[in-house]
Amino acid sequence: MKIGIGGIKFSEELVHISHRTVVPADSSFADLIRRLAEKRINVPFVCSSVYDDAALCTFCIATTDFPSLERLLAAPSTLGEPADALSSALLSNPEHLKITQRVGTLTLFPHRRSLALFGRIVELFGQSGIIIHSLCTSISALAINVDYHALDLVAEVLGKIVELPENHAPFRPEFCVRQIST
Amino acid sequence: METIAVYWEPKIRVYGLTTRSGLSLYTLIFPIARLAYWGGVVGSLEIKGSEFELINLQTASATTMQLCLLPAQDEQAADVRMILETGAEHEEATCFKVVTPVELIYLHGPHFQDRYGIADAALRPLHTARIPILSAGCAGTSVYLVVSENRAEEAAACLSETFVF
Fold this sequence. Notes:
Chain A is an alpha+beta fold. Chain A has helices spanning 28-38, 66-73, 85-91, 115-128, 151-158, and strands at residues 3-4, 7-10, 14-22, 45-51, 54-62, 97-109, 134-137, 142-147, 162-163.
């Protein structure tokens, strides 16, 4: 039996960054998020979880913001840290930072806090070989990061288990909202 | 075509802040090849009457994924724990951990997904106050933060530095 949902939305093209830290000693993730804010780079997706002393953190930025991220990793922070302290801590260790280009967020809503919906989606993706880079729930939606070029295919596969309103097609970003000042 | 709208606020306004206590946080690390299996296991929890507050799933390495599950109703905690624990015991290369009790804080606000600085405004005050974040999720217009027992009130006070509830 299919599960009824209200709709599916696709994001613009994103860059997906996964970061590992040792908690609580390593502040590099908080520093990185702070620097993104200083550079007015929007972070539309963040999730993190801790297992023992290791925190795994994932975030996304727009592909158009990625050159700014690369620049800021090599630039001194406003706190007067050494120019390359953060970048060397992050970029020089591929175990700590993994950057995946060309990712898109498929947002499915509403989730109604349903473990069955989540479970069946994950089960289906596992069976279909669809790579989930990351996933996080919000107050009403399930945001799933997959390969950007696969968004249409993923929506089609989801059709096996979810029922969309009649004539619904995934919403695509037709315009971009960008905050340009505080 | 570009349209510019002007709006200013001294602090980030939200639609309210909610806390929940007495929850249990489950974390699983498992082989990517077992994704379908774990999807089936978590999906079966709904039969027990459980809903979720927060779920996140991340690629932990080239071969593993890390699932973080915060069920909504603690009355089902014993069943949820048993099902996940039993599932993990029978699986190879799988790690399972429960942190209980934990507390959840969540807030949501206008166009959070389009505005820079929201994640920083949520994470920085807790980091500065040395309140460990056990799990977090910022997607859409929502911010979810999981903290240890008896830390939610303090965390909410810290968040009042950057948000207006």
